[in-house]
Amino acid sequence: MGKVLFSFGHGYSARALARHLAPRGWRIYGTTRSPERAETLRAEGVTPLLWDGDDIADALAEATHLLSSAGPTEAGDPVLARHRDAIAAAAPRLDWAGYLSTTGVYGDHQGGWVDEDTPLTPSTERGRRRVAAEADWQAIPGLPLHIFRLAGIYGPGRGPFEKVRQGTARRIVKPGQVFSRTHVDDIAQVLAASIDRPRPGAVYNLCDDDPAPPEDVIAHAAELLGLPVPPEVPFDDADMSPMARSFYAESKRVSNRRIKDELGVHLLHPDYRSGLRALLAEEG
Q1: For the chain, what is the radius of gyration of the CA atoms?
Q2: How far apart are CA 33 and CA 53, in angstroms?
Q3: pLDDT tens string 213-257
Q4: What does the domain layout of the chain look like in residue ranges?
Q5: What is the pTM assigned to this prediction?
Q6: CATH number of this structure's domain 4-155+181-210+254-269
């Protein structure tokens, strides 16, 4: 029997994994809420399933591997709210299951380092929901679960270049603020490496080697484009949405040692400079 991935919330990161697995002969099911997106997935070689459809349990019964990328809401994890029983029934047959979480579960460490053993002390509502969702997934008996805590994701279509070109990029400066990041292609290779070396119960941080202030990333993007570096805007003076401002409530450096030691991963983009150069090259 061939390998079959069932992907709940088949979005940006899951599509990158599918591009990694499809050439290896995998069959891939991916859920979406949008009929228009379903056709895009089909063109990428993924069998699309509408979120509200009746065929999800049947497809899950074929799966050898399961991935969930859907974020929790105030009502909890949407996948488990609707499909917990089907997932629990499939669990004994699965070789691997993955849940994409966030490094936001660690909370604020004032620029200090965290790793997978750091206590979970989220300071935002988003982070608290993720902690609860992780626990809900871990509670499913027999599920060979692996949790991946992702730093800020960037990649094709999600880089800073367009805002820099348009003159709308801002270098918001909050002293001491650093973020960790991860390129979507590194997410895909880490997930694939875990699939090849399953260790149920494992938790992995997905991030690059170089936590950095956000204003440095914008400045480097402008330099690569040969455009003026946007001026600095003090954080206290910046006009930001509550959501954007909440990201600055936490500052930490995230260790990625475990993905290297356990999974043998060599990052494609070990820092934002490498990642941005690759994005610009892809743009041509």
Answers
A1: 19
A2: 9
A3: 999 999 999 999 999 999 999 999 999 998 888 889 999 999 999
A4: 4-155+181-210+254-269
A5: 0.96
A6: 3.40.50.720
